[in-house]
Design goal:
Blueprint: E1 2-3, E2 10-12, E3 22-25, E4 30-33, E5 40-41, E6 60-61, E7 79-89, E8 93-103, E9 110-119, E10 126-135, E11 142-143, E12 152-153, E13 163-174, E14 187-196, E15 211-221, E16 226-240, E17 250-266, E18 269-281, E19 289-301, E20 306-318, H1 321-324, E21 339-350, E22 353-362, E23 367-376, E24 381-391, E25 398-410, E26 416-426, E27 432-446, E28 449-462, E29 470-483, E30 487-500, E31 532-544, E32 549-562, E33 567-581, E34 589-603, E35 611-627, E36 631-646, E37 652-666, E38 671-682, E39 687-701, E40 704-711, E41 729-736
Antiparallel strand pairs: 1-2, 3-4, 5-6, 7-8, 8-9, 9-10, 10-13, 11-12, 13-14, 14-15, 15-16, 16-17, 17-18, 18-19, 19-20, 20-21, 21-22, 22-23, 23-24, 24-25, 25-26, 26-27, 27-28, 28-29, 29-30, 30-31, 31-32, 32-33, 33-34, 34-35, 35-36, 36-37, 37-38, 38-39, 39-40, 40-41
């Protein structure tokens, strides 16, 4: 996502597809893009930017926006429900809507509802309307400017006004849809309007809060070689006024862009002519500004392998020094600052290797160079290199940016992997160096034994006093050992070491610089609270005593320690043993036994070193009996002893007894029904809770079934779960046997 360097409003959003644009390495907990992403993109006219050049001559900042699902461990007792539907009628009219409701015991309930209407058979001629409203904040949101090593809160303003609406209207028209023409595309026009209140919260919309955007684009395809278009966008944005003490203060920015563009393409020759008019009204500036830019470009493709291009940009009118002068702090402008030329070339060395270079320079002596190489070889190796260099006029300094990376898969079935990336940014502003290296290997040691080893190190060095350097080392070993059909051992051990030098919180100077850092993202530096080490152990064992009895055990440990503060911040331990009796010669009885020990240390008020600790001993037995007349009877009896320690409060012990009675009935070939009656007793409160549950199951496969039902009881049947959480209501679940 590209945001304007001066106004902070969104200019461009390019969705990324999994396994096409990026991959996820779950072992390292890292998202890896197929190609390096620039920190800034070209801020010239419409046909430059992300899709073509990557100039470091000023530029708009680029962000990667990631949304993901998670379960909030601190939301005990909360309930949520949602429904969404969409239907298309007569292949012309699309209607839809949805509702999400979260009831929160800790604060204001969250609610989001929306509706949509679409009219039109073809993609080129269509009208779409969308409207949504929300109440309260949906979730917390953070941003990182160092590749994910540290995250900071994205929004600082008060959330008391966290309610609002959002509306989008899009209309598209194609002349060929209503007239009999030889071509499918002749003249198309698109009109759009989007308005989102600052208090509207929905997944993926936080960075467009407080924006009102109007757009118009029309394109005339004169013939196969000639095309002419006009595009106009206006954005009104409300952002935080970080120049005041009150964090809830806001201000309104207005930015508009109008571009007329002509394109010609014919047998390896391309030409582009464009004229752009920009206006920018920022209350923090002495006056509103406007800029007019003319641009011409020629491209030549001499062969399938070699291409060159030349562009000339002229700022014909305007006095916005942020656009004319770039990174130079001086407000003085010269006539030759308004002329910028660009030369580019690309050569396809092989089918999998291309080298490219771009040189962009102002006539006043400022220039930027970018050189890149990317190659893929037949032996599962990929390498990329990108070098960007900028020199500012009057010897006011230079800035460089180097990105070098590669990945190689090796070994049998490409079971080994090695990857690295280095980024070096220096010069004007903040020096920053980042490095990442990783190595992993999976192989079969002997019959029945396989190992997986991995190591990764990342390091970021920041040349600013109020921020801290950061390093992270992560090493892991995983194994599996099988001895015949009787014994199976699985394990994983991972150690992470994070080191961050202590700093202090101070205001960043970004508002005072002419580089135009996004005001909405100028934040006080939030430094690390010290060094940390995290250990993860996950081990399971299964032993088949004979054909009827199976023994199993597990030991899991996750602990995080702040070595600077000498404080164990969190710890989760789960260990247990169990046995399963499944007689081969008798199918009317199955028995499950289990003992589990749980130990959890969780922080609350970590800045004060305050913690809570909860430990539990859990015993359970579950007999399953097959009865005549397609009936099945399932019992569970569980005993859980809990010891709770909370600082500044007396210690407490609680013994919980859970008794679950379930009767299943096999209705037809693929349908089962079940009814439960549950009881729960707690020694601390000396009370009994009870209730029923109804469920209908559809057997998808022999060992997999899908269930839907309603729980009339507030507590769940899981003796290891959270009994304070309200589990009543409609539920869906998938049950698998293995």
């Amino acid at each position: 996502m590209v945001r304007d360097s001066t106004s902070g409003v969104e200019l461009l959003r390019i969705p990324q597809s999994r396994n096409t644009d990026y991959t996820i390495r779950y072992g390292e907990g890292r998202i890896v893009f197929r190609r390096p992403l620039p920190s800034v993109v070209d801020d010239a006219t419409a046909f430059s930017g992300y899709q073509s050049t990557r100039s470091t001559l000023v530029g708009h900042p680029l962000y990667v926006e990631v949304s993901y699902d998670h379960e909030n461990g601190s939301s005990a007792g909360d309930t949520s429900a949602g429904v969404q539907g969409r239907e298309t009628l007569w292949d012309t009219v699309t209607v839809g809507g949805g509702l999400v409701q979260e009831n929160r015991l800790s604060g204001q309930d969250y609610k989001l509802w929306g509706a949509e209407l679409g009219i039109g058979k073809r993609q080129t001629t269509r009208l779409d309307l969308e409207y949504a409203e929300s109440e309260a904040q949906d979730t917390s949101t953070s941003y990182s400017d160092d590749g994910g090593l540290r995250f900071r809160p994205l929004r600082l303003a008060s959330s008391d006004d966290a309610s609002g609406s959002a509306m989008t209207v899009r209309g598209r028209f194609e002349l060929a849809d209503v007239m009999e023409l030889e071509r499918d595309r002749v003249w198309s026009t698109e009109v759009s309007y989007r308005n989102q209140d600052r208090g509207f919260f929905s997944n993926g919309s936080l960075l467009t809060q407080g924006e009102e955007k109007t757009g118009l684009a029309t394109t005339w395809l004169i013939n196969d070689r000639h095309q002419f278009g006009i595009k106009a966008d206006k954005i009104d944005a409300i952002v935080e006024d970080l120049t005041t003490v009150d964090l809830s203060d806001t201000l309104r920015l207005t930015h508009s862009t109008t571009t007329a563009q002509y394109e010609f393409n014919d047998e390896g020759v391309s030409m582009q002519l464009a004229y752009e008019h920009n206006t920018n009204d920022d209350p923090r500036l002495t006056a509103a500004t406007s800029t007019d830019i003319a641009k011409a470009g020629l491209g030549f493709k001499f062969s399938d392998d070699f291409r060159v291009g030349v562009e000339q940009e002229i700022i014909v009118a305007g006095d916005d020094t942020r656009l004319i002068r770039g990174a130079d702090l001086s407000t003085e402008t010269r006539f030759d600052d308004r002329f910028i030329s660009t030369l580019s070339a690309g050569y396809q060395l092989t089918d999998s290797t291309e080298i490219s270079a771009t040189e962009r320079f102002r006539y006043s002596g400022e220039n930027a160079t970018s050189i890149g190489l990317r190659t893929e070889t037949a032996d599962n190796t990929e390498v990329y290199v990108q070098q960007r260099m900028t020199n500012y006029r009057d010897n006011h300094g230079a800035a460089t940016s180097t990105v070098v990376g590669g990945e190689q898969k090796f070994g049998e079935d490409a079971g080994g992997r090695a990857y690295t990336e280095i980024q070096n940014n220096g010069g004007i502003g903040v020096d920053r160096q980042s490095a990442l290296v990783g190595l992993g290997r999976t192989w079969k040691v002997t019959d029945g034994l396989s190992l997986d080893l991995a190591y990764e190190r990342s390091q970021t060095l920041i040349g600013r006093a109020n921020e801290s350097d950061h390093t992270r080392d992560a090493g892991s070993i995983g194994w599996q050992w099988k001895k015949g059909e009787e014994l199976t051992l699985n394990g994983l051990a991972e150690l992470r070491l994070e080191s961050a030098s202590l700093g202090y919180t101070g205001a960043t100077p970004c508002l005072a610089t002419a580089t135009g850092s996004n005001p909405a993202n100028c934040r006080d530096a939030l430094t690390s609270l010290g060094d940390r080490q995290q250990l993860t152990l996950m081990n399971t064992a299964t032993y088949k005593l004979d054909q009827d009895w199976t023994l199993f055990g597990r030991f899991d440990l996750v602990t995080t320690e702040n070595t600077t503060l000498k404080l164990e911040e969190s710890r989760d331990v789960e260990t247990g043993v169990g046995a399963a009796y499944r007689p081969v010669d008798t199918d009317w009885l199955n028995l499950l036994f289990r003992y589990t020990y749980l130990d959890e240390i969780a922080p609350y008020g970590l800045e004060l070193g305050m913690q809570s600790r909860e430990s539990s001993h859990v015993f359970s037995v579950s007999p399953i009996l097959e009865l005549p007349w397609n009936l099945q009877f399932v019992e569970k009896v569980a005993l859980r002893n809990i010891h709770l320690e909370v600082e500044n409060l007396p210690e407490a012990d609680n013994t919980m007894t859970l008794w679950v009675n379930r009767l299943n009935y096999h209705i037809v070939e693929k349908w089962d029904a079940g009814v439960e009656y549950r009881l729960l007793h707690q020694s601390l409160t000396k009370d009994w809770q009870h209730g029923t549950l109804l469920e209908l199951n559809y057997i998808i496969a022999t060992y997999v079934r899908l269930g839907v039902g309603y729980n009339f009881t507030k507590f769940a049947e899981d003796e290891l779960g959270d009994f304070d959480r309200d589990s009543s209501g409609v539920f869906f679940r998938v049950t698998a046997q293995y």
